[in-house]
Design goal:
This protein has 259 residues and is an alpha/beta fold. The N terminus is likely disordered. The protein has two domains: 185 residues, P-loop containing nucleotide triphosphate hydrolases (Rossmann fold), CATH 3.40.50; 65 residues, no CATH class. A six-stranded mixed sheet has the order 5-6-7-3-8-9, with helices on both faces. Strands 2-1-4 form a three-stranded antiparallel sheet, with helices on one face. Helix 3 packs parallel to helix 5. The chain has nine helices and nine strands. The structure holds adenosine-5'-diphosphate (ADP) and magnesium ion. The site of adenosine-5'-diphosphate (ADP) has 11 residues, from strand 2 and helix 1.
Length: 259
């Protein structure tokens, strides 16, 4: 259970006089050969928002996150992530943010604890044992700390990926399909954690193909299909109309002729 944060992303410490944009994408585009995976997407995410990029498999979510985190360069367009251009300074972007890539697993030859210590050392963190201990407690996998990552279940590996992403208490986290591989109890813990994290002033950009996640925890969503952003807006705009996200989403995607 998330019990609040003693760390530096407390809202009152970061209080800003105007809403700061943590992510700004302008006409961001990625072609893989003849496939246009992301097609001129412009969007922005303000500090303290939980933004969900929602779309079916193959719609371009992972490609979008990879460009925003400096893992791949865009074919065209540009982005600013915490004021940094990820295409020009990918290392600096990754130093500032937390990332959970899609389907990525920690190194097979390290134990869970060794991996977290490794990440903490790379990030020059203090109080390493305390930080790691907090994550083992929060996600309830302290009993696995001495198990080699290759022998961990997929769910436990995903917990470890969560821990590494938030170990340095980043102001912004980008998470590709966050709840995949987690059982319903752990999904609840992670959802509560993410809501608490934005309540404390942190910002989250997540991708998901699961409508319920977007509806339940996101402040704002963007709907992506065939690389194009079909809609973006507050979730409460939809719920206020009494419209269920599922029917809205299906109408958008089915009605998308690619024009
Ligand atoms: N490295 C790659 N090389 C070629 N095509 C790719 C590559 N990565 C993704 N694609 C294609 O780009 C499109 C978008 O993929 P992706 O961003 O992974 O979507 P999503 O995360 O929404 O499932 C798909 O058609 C996919 O096959
Ligand atoms: Mg994906």
């Amino acid at each position: 259970m998330y019990t609040g944060c003693r760390c530096s992303f407390k809202k009152n410490r970061w209080m800003v006089t105007h809403m700061q944009q943590m992510i700004e994408a302008t006409e961001l585009t990625k072609n893989y050969g003849t496939v246009t995976a992301v097609n001129r997407i412009s969007l922005s995410v303000a500090e303290g928002e939980l933004f969900g990029l929602l779309g079916p498999n193959g719609s371009g979510k992972t490609t979008m996150i990879r460009m925003l985190t400096g893992q791949i360069p865009p074919t065209a367009g540009s982005a600013r992530v915490m004021g940094i251009d990820p295409a020009k300074d990918p290392v600096e972007v990754r130093r500032s943010i937390g990332i959970i890539p899609e389907q990525e697993t920690p190194p097979s030859f390290l134990t869970a604890e060794e991996y977290l210590h490794f990440v903490a050392k790379i990030r020059n963190l203090d109080a390493i044992d305390e930080r790691c201990g907090r994550w083992f407690d929060l996600l309830e996998f302290g009993d696995k700390r001495d198990v080699l990552c290759k022998d961990l279940s997929r769910g436990t590996r995903q917990k470890l990926m969560f821990a590494q992403a938030f170990l340095h208490e980043p102001r912004l986290a980008l998470i590709d399909e966050p709840l995949i591989n987690l059982d319903p109890i752990m999904q609840r813990t992670v959802k509560d954690f993410l809501r608490g994290y934005v309540r404390d002033g942190g910002t989250v950009f997540l991708s998901t193909h699961i409508l319920e996640i977007a509806e339940e925890i996101c402040d704002r969503i963007g709907v992506i299909h065939n690389g194009r952003l079909l809609h973006s807006g507050p979730v409460e705009d939809l719920t206020a109309t009494g419209r269920h996200l599922e029917s809205f989403f299906l109408d958008l995607v089915r009605g998308d002729t690619g024009a």
